[in-house]
Amino acid sequence: MINQPFLENPNEVEEIPIQDGKIRLYPYLFSPEEREKFLIELKKNVDWQQEEIKLYGRAIPLPRLTAWFGDEGKTYMYSGITVEPEPWTPTLLEIKSRIEEVSNVTFNSVLLNYYRNERDSVSWHSDDEPELGKDPIIGSVSFGDVRTFQLKHKTDKSLKISKDLPDGSYLVMAGSTQHHWLHQIPKRTRKIGSRINLTFRIIRGS
User: Fold this and answer.
1) Which of 50, 76, 139, 193 has the greatest number of beta carbons closer than 10 A?
2) H-helix or E-strand containing 100?
3) CB 111 within 8 A of CB 76
4) Does residue 2 sit within a domain?
5) Any idea what DSSP says for residue 49?
6) Cβ proximity of 195 and 147 under 8 Å
7) pTM score > 0.85 for this model?
8) Bridge-partner residues for 120, per DSSP?
């Protein structure tokens, strides 16, 4: 018997079983060539910032680099940080167009997170800021090394989910997910290379 090569299907969709929410994963939406191209372009051409949060009166640098892009006037506030959008780049518009085709959603902004190595992370949180509106749709694209995406239910402590997000994958969180679940990208001890995550959003209002 001849072993057939593994073929990635960009149309493959995985519905992740979840109570009180809706999550869908497209593990191979972007081709290997696109993944490499986009990762290089985003690393090189984005003006990455290391924002700080206030914790017990001290300024603590976020353990990752970030950038905010979007339509004009789509200001965003998270973790006490207020960011004004940079204008869309051709690369971001190309990625945005691809995910909008499969999810039938029009996004107007995106938060970029650059995890430089295994020590970079994002702690438990929900994307439930008021400007995102009720039942926000969050479209999350990953390029680079695989990181583990973890979720835990806010009230039922027995409900936990852990999912590796492949290079070139697209994860959609919708419905009441942000009301009932927290999510994070934890630090790791084993060596991991860089990863860029783009979380597309819809800012309501102005």
Assistant:
1) 139
2) helix 90-103
3) yes
4) no
5) B
6) yes
7) yes
8) none
